[in-house]
UniProtKB/TrEMBL annotation:
It holds the Pfam family 2OG-FeII_Oxy_5. InterPro entries: CHP02466 (IPR012668), TPR-like_helical_dom_sf (IPR011990). This is 2OG-Fe(II) oxygenase. It comes from Sphingomonas hylomeconis. Signal peptide: none annotated. It comes from the Bacteria.
Length: 514
């Protein structure tokens, strides 16, 4: 069995110096120990310290496939996709029957922007039932503009395996990205075949919630109650649909009687309802109580709203420090913005807004933008890394209780990166990035006239219009080509509508490491 990448664990549980010291001793004569140390280094976020040692070990023991694999994964974590692809290709050459190595190579190649259909097909032959490989092949087809092929492949499997939940979710997303009206059709067909399958109803409702189709959610809840009344979570989904479609009193009555224990997702819904019903004191207390739970980082945006409503001075501690929102004009470091804009437009394969994102009236690129090896993206990434380092350096001292200041400041890792292209009337709905640490908006191309007094197309910070339409933003920032805005991922942000033209941006999240 080849090495896999374990989930990150707190660095304090691993002796970092011992990992690197052991790796240094293992380079010359113990490839198995070097491999194990490489895996531990990834778990402890020590890739910078380990990469050169692993490179030396992999070169010295070039026949050790798993060592080359681990070296490739470390390089991938560092964003060095050229090295990652080469190392994984060497691992695949040494162990052509290893499904994990084949999949890792395919994934690295698609992330780097290389054609990867054939790579995924080879991986699929080795692991024909592996969900991640099947979905990866669909992503590779989509990336090479075989949109129908990507959709038809997933649809065919879902039709035969109606309980493949990841397939349903991916199919809905792909169909939505190209504007198909039947994006939820596979769920509908599956529950017709298996009406008592609670997992199907739950998955359908989760997809509708992510897409913010709350009226449809209410109808699906009613159908699920008839077909599979024991489906877990129906009361919660019923309350969410009611709350988001204006029936706040009925939603509140349901939510008030729902137990939440240590479930941050239920607490968030209760807090949203309390805010809508004009009960910010209760909302603040409940949200504050949940911030320490698993997933509780997503409650800080609601704490901020409640504290603003209550004029609580703690809001200044949470979001009011001037260093938390920084503007960096980096156009001169990026180079030719027109060339970058032209390149980004080619990557916008989708023709409709994504199903589960904040984009309204536009498109979003698929995959990790900063992983691509295109020279335009390389220059962009380098400029962004420099700005993020400056942002972090300007922050106040660490504060373990604070969602921004309590996170580890090194190393800096990107949790996601993408481009958004909005056209006339487009905007971003107010949202947060609960899994990130630092979020961003980088302006590449803008329509004329966004410097007017109406703030059309401007970035808004601190407001949640869908939840509290009367609460104004705490800050409005004018977009300019080459301007990068950095702010905490837990801060509400959105974009005002603009009348006409194209607004082309790049965005990314810096990962919150534990």
């Amino acid at each position: 069995m080849s090495a896999t990448v374990p989930r990150p664990i707190p660095r304090s549980t691993i002796d970092s110096s011992d990992i690197i010291a052991t790796l240094r001793r293992a380079v010359k004569g113990d490839p198995d120990a070097a491999t194990r140390c490489g895996i531990l280094a990834m778990r402890a976020h020590l890739e910078e310290e380990a990469v050169d040692l692993l490179r030396a070990a992999a070169d010295r023991h070039c026949g050790h496939a798993t060592l080359s694999q681990v070296f490739g994964l470390v390089a991938r974590n560092l964003g060095d996709m050229k090295t990652a692809c080469a190392a994984l290709a060497r691992a695949h050459q040494r162990a052509p029957a290893d499904a994990l190595i084949a999949h890792g190579l395919a994934r690295a190649r698609i992330e780097a922007g290389y054609p990867a259909i054939d790579d995924y097909r080879r991986a699929l032959k080795l692991a024909p039932a592996e969900s991640a490989v099947i979905l990866g092949l669909a992503a590779a087809r989509f990336a090479e503009r075989d949109v129908d092929g990507a959709i038809d492949h997933i649809a065919g499997i879902v039709a035969q395996q109606p309980l493949w939940l990841d397939g349903h979710a991916t199919l809905a997303r792909l169909r939505g990205m190209v504007g198909r009206d039947d994006d939820m059709a596979s769920y509908r067909e599956a529950v017709t075949k298996l009406p008592q399958a609670a997992a199907l109803w739950q998955a359908w409702l989760a997809t509708l919630a992510a897409a913010e189709r709350f009226s449809d959610m209410a109808m699906v809840v009613a159908a699920a109650r008839r077909a599979a009344p024991a489906t877990p979570g129906l009361e919660l989904y019923d309350a969410v649909a009611a709350d988001e479609t204006g029936d706040v009193d009925r939603a509140g009555a349901i939510l008030d009687r729902l137990p939440y224990h240590d479930d941050a997702a239920i607490i968030i819904r209760k807090v949203r309802s309390l805010l809508r019903r004009g009960r910010p004191t209760e909302a603040a207390a409940l949200a504050e109580s949940g911030t320490a739970l698993a997933g509780g980082n997503g409650l800080w945006p609601y704490v901020a709203l409640a504290w603003r409503l209550l004029d609580d001075p703690r809001w200044t501690w949470l979001e009011g420090d001037p260093s938390f929102v920084q503007v960096h004009d980096i156009g001169d470091q990026i180079g030719d913005l027109a060339a970058l804009a032209a390149h980004l437009r080619k990557l916008h394969i989708a023709t409709a807004q994504p199903l589960d994102q904040s984009v309204r009236g536009g498109t979003q690129t698929d995959g990790a933008l900063f992983s691509r090896l295109d020279p335009e993206i390389g220059r962009l990434r380098a400029a962004v890394q420099k700005a993020v380092a400056a942002y972090v350096a300007a922050l106040p001292p660490p504060d373990a209780a604070h969602p921004l200041l309590g996170a580890r400041r090194r190393p800096i890792r990107f949790a996601g990166s993408w481009s958004v292209r909005l056209t006339g009337g487009g905007h971003h709905a107010d949202h947060i990035h609960g899994q990130g640490w630092i979020s961003s908006a980088l302006y590449v191309a803008l329509p004329p006239g966004l410097d007017g007094g109406d703030h059309a197309g401007w970035l808004t910070l601190g407001a949640s219009q869908a939840l509290l339409p009367g609460l104004a933003p705490v800050r409005l920032i004018e977009p300019k080509p080459g301007r990068l805005v950095l702010f905490p991922s837990t801060m509400w942000h959105g974009t005002n509508r603009f009348p006409a033209g194209e607004r082309l941006t790049v965005a990314f999240d810096v990962a919150r490491l534990i």
